[in-house]
Design goal:
Layout lengths: L4 E4 L2 E3 L2 H24 L6 H26 L3 H33 L7 H29 L3 H19 L11 H9 L12 E4 L2 E4 L1 H25 L5 H13 L1 H7 L10 H22 L20 H33 L1
Antiparallel strand pairs: 1-2, 3-4
Helix pairs in contact: 1-4, 1-8, 2-3, 2-8, 2-9, 3-7, 3-8, 3-10, 3-11, 4-7, 4-8, 5-10, 6-7, 7-10, 10-11
């Protein structure tokens, strides 16, 4: 049975019921998680988070194979490759988010047994906000082909900025303007009341630190989406693949937080690696924009067919290579640095 079809060699047609089923299943998984975690706040064991992470990653991999299987045409392999490239990119950018999440947890002194609840609700907020971003991005791309120029230039600018900053040594969380407004707007207590967002103190209803924390997590992830959404649209123009890649990347983020929290400090070249990744996708976006050029001051408004085209298979290979080299180099550097004190003594 063909569920997903290709209206052209490069466009996927997804039935409305498939959209509804996908979003419904993801919502059901998240709601199950909410009720389980909220009912029993605790510090998850390594076995618990490892099992859940393997399940989420396995589901993401199987979904990519499903995209290929249910299309049953030549475009199926292309769509599958686009999905995997987008998922890996979103997942790697989400790992960078974990540094900020750790700082937020430390800044607000979140008890360890409540960190699961805070992360889960914050991620749900992030999913909703990203969904809005994805819809706006899809509408802009369909209406204006020159948007790719903006996306590409923004990614290259972000890459240069990341490369200059390097690995941040700042151990303090800096609030964005929205969070500053939230803290001014809502009267809050400095005491946690389990996983409750609001509590009553001396007859007054006050926000708990948990409310502030989940707002910080959700809005901070939205700021990261300013990079990740243009990046994934540089790999695929299919809103369905963009959405599912983001969903699978975010759904496994909570388990990843507890599993590799200590390992994050060893990924010393992660920021540099992500800078290279974003620069690569930014250049790919600009080249794609040249192929579909409609701007009158660029080549007289004609398509620049001479511009090289980077196939999605090459993009996927480049992403895997960049992330692999970044991880190996980071672990080698961390291991080398760890030996310095012992050898010096």
């Amino acid at each position: 049975m063909t569920v997903l079809t290709a209206t052209t060699a490069s466009q996927m047609e997804v039935p409305t019921w498939v959209w509804c089923l996908t979003i419904g299943l993801m919502a059901a998984v998240l709601l199950f998680d909410v009720f389980v975690v909220a009912r029993r706040p605790h510090v998850p064991t390594t076995k618990e988070v490892s099992g859940a992470l393997v399940l989420y990653v396995g589901a993401a991999v199987l979904f990519g194979l499903g995209v290929w299987w249910f299309t049953h045409d030549q475009a199926g392999a292309k769509f599958m490759t686009e999905y995997y490239a987008g998922w890996l990119t979103e997942y790697s950018l989400s790992v960078d988010n974990l540094f900020i999440f750790l700082l937020i947890m430390a800044r607000f002194g979140v008890p360890q047994k409540l960190q699961q609840s805070a992360l889960l609700i914050g991620i749900i907020i992030a999913i909703v906000l990203r969904g809005i971003f994805i819809a706006v991005g899809a509408a802009a791309i369909n209406q204006f082909s020159w948007v790719f120029y903006l996306f590409g230039a923004f990614l290259v600018y972000t890459a240069v900025k990341l490369a200059k900053e390097g690995q941040s040594d700042d151990d303090e969380y800096e609030e964005n303007r929205f969070m500053a407004w939230v803290e001014r707007r809502f009267r809050a207590t400095d005491r946690y009341d389990g996983a409750k967002l609001f509590t009553t103190v001396n007859g007054r209803r006050l926000a708990t630190p948990m409310f502030i924390v989940i707002m910080a997590l959700g809005t901070t992830d939205l700021l990261f989406a300013l990079d990740s959404i243009p990046a994934i649209y540089g790999l695929t123009k299919e809103p369905y693949l963009v959405l599912t890649a983001n969903l699978f990347a975010l759904m496994g983020l909570r388990q990843l937080y507890f599993l590799i929290g200590g390992l994050l400090k060893k990924l010393v070249y992660l920021t540099l690696g992500l800078a290279v990744l974003l620069a690569f996708i930014g250049v790919k976006l600009v080249l794609h924009a040249l192929h579909e050029n409609e701007l009158p001051f660029v080549n007289g408004g004609q398509h620049v067919t001479a511009a090289p085209d980077i196939p999605i298979s090459v993009s996927l290979g480049a992403i895997v290579l960049i992330l692999g080299v970044t991880t190996v180099a980071s672990l080698w550097r961390s291991r080398k640095d760890a030996k310095v004190p012992s050898s010096a003594s």
